[in-house]
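Comment thread on ticket #2218

A.B. wrote:
> Attaching the input chain for the structure job we discussed in standup.
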Amino acid sequence: MKQSQILLAEFQHESASTRKLLERVPFDKPDYKPHDKSMSLVRLATHVAEIAGWWKECLVKDELDFSVGDFSPKQINSTEDLLALHDSYVASSVAILQEVADEEFAKPWTMRNGETIYFTMPKAAVVRTWCLNHLYHHRGQLTVYLRLLDVPVPGMYGPTADEQG
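C.D. wrote:
> Ran it. Output below, let me know if you need it in another format.
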């Protein structure tokens, strides 16, 4: 089986779980933070949705240079907008994973800020670290935010205490 197909199966499964979580984000508390150093609720939820689009940056391109471009976080104001953002990134990443050749995963990928190189790794390691593990990390944070706001947390790998009645 091709590496892209293995990753595609995981990505699609996890994207469905992520979507269930994003459906629960309460937009009546967009600025909620559990700590002063934390991201706001809506910024974190938007970041979780945006991570689904990183496959393009990590597989189609050979580097990410923060010194070029003008990234600014999307301004999301509703559940519908959040889900639309997530779904659009999922669709584009699924298309990339369906087309990418296995040889691409062995190529080096670099994260930099101009002349400062943060790291260079094979794309296989980059997609695992930045497209999947990074998602799981922030998705876990988002579940804590929801729990602290007394929003029922959906199951990712089985039922949660909220779903067991």
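A.B. wrote:
> Thanks. Noting for the ticket: The CA atoms of residues 80 and 94 lie 21 Å apart.
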